[in-house]
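anyone seen this seq b4? input:
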Amino acid sequence: MNVTTITLTLNEEHNVEACLESLAWADRMVVFDCFSTDRTVNLAQQAGAEVIQHPFENFAQQHNAAMAHVEADWVFFVDADERATPDLAAEVRAVTAGDREEVMWWVPRHNYIFGRLTLGSGWYPDYQARLLRQGYTHWERPVHEFAVANGPEGYLKNPLIHYNYDDLPDFVARQERYTDFDAGILFEQGVHPRFYTPYSQALRQFWWRFVTLRGIRDGLHGLWLGMLMAYYEAVKYRKLAEHWQAANR
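predicted toks r here
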């Protein structure tokens, strides 16, 4: 069956060539671009990808729009900062070749954070729903989007390589965006934090990341990540408290 890869982009000139090079085995490569202002489009076209440009509303909508624009038996979503290994490519070909009942496959990821492979703290296997049978799945939620399948699901063994969080400024910038969004969701759900909630949630997050999810296996790197994630858990609940303070004025 036909496998088309889809890569969502916005100003990914530093990533798109290597990403598409790792996807050259696919029947078709599509770059679904949100009107990049750098060289992303030209580089993608030079790498053999078809480029479709579409305005961005939210992540779920962008995934759904991409699938609506592509005719294929299977769609394989790969982010620009990810790479598909030859072993993963062979496995994708194998599970899509026959008449299997699964309509969605979850793919594990090897996350490289600050340049280091991170196996603890919940960063592995980090399954992502990426290989989707066309017509049987859709995406929901504006940020931290997720795929919903109308049929059986399966799990692949070979991981995507994910170059996640290049450095500390990149980590901080993204966590600021994520905590804004997550605090807004909690506010809409009517969650009322107490004065101690940011501190208790930070401690809970650290324990969960470093102990329960075995961040300790990554040594000082795991300790540093656990502390960072705990800090931004506190930030999220402080932002939630600010929402309630503004609403009660």
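The chain has a mean pLDDT of 96. The chain has two domains: 3-164, 168-247. kinda curious what u guys think
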